[in-house]
């Protein structure tokens, strides 16, 4: 017996790529909230370096073309959009160090960096859209967590680009100070090159000692 699928079945769209828009921001605006900020972080997974968060309030009249999840963009395109975002939007950046990550945990450190980025906006946000499952506590405005938000919202996508480019630049500079690990090449992620550097030289002050396989060395 054959099985048919109706033309409007959700099954047909399960693998369709998400495309960010400005719709979530406009929904908040119609509800009386303006301006709306998007917030995201970069660097939850690496073995070294800070987690960096950004908050962005876009100008609806000057939204850069091509905003998307930073992971879907080339490094060159991220750098181009980074410059455009800083030239046209209100931006704030904050970070939590490896030491802070180790004394709390990566989730708390990420949310705290996001909170500080949002609170640091020169133009206070009336509403915040955050990427993921959580809205940071301690904000002066309401917010909404958006799963895969950097692929759904222009503002969150812009924040993801700012956070990613900022963190990559920080890790490139860290590679000059600590050349044994190749930070400029992998931004602190657990690549073979990075792990070999740790094996040969041990950890440096930028390493997250609460992360495996480094955790055993903190005992």
What is the C-alpha radius of gyration, as a whole number of Å? 19 Å
Principal-axis shape: globular
**What structural class do helix, strand and pairing data support?**
alpha/beta
Cα-to-Cα separation, first versus last residue: 62 Å
The ordered string of helix (H) and strand (E) elements is: HEEHEHHEEHHH
Number of domains: 1
* Tally of contiguous helical segments: 7
Q: What's the average pLDDT?
A: 92
For the largest beta-sheet, the strand count, sense and barrel status come to: 5 strands, mixed
Fraction of residues in helix: 25-40%
CATH superfamily: Ribonuclease H-like superfamily/Ribonuclease H
Would you tell me which CATH topology applies? Nucleotidyltransferase, domain 5
- The CATH class is identified as Alpha Beta
- Tell me the strand order in the biggest sheet: 3-2-1-4-5
Poorly predicted segments: 1-14
Q: In percent terms, what proportion of residues is strand?
A: 5-15%
CATH architecture: 2-Layer Sandwich
Compute the number of strand runs.
Answer: 5
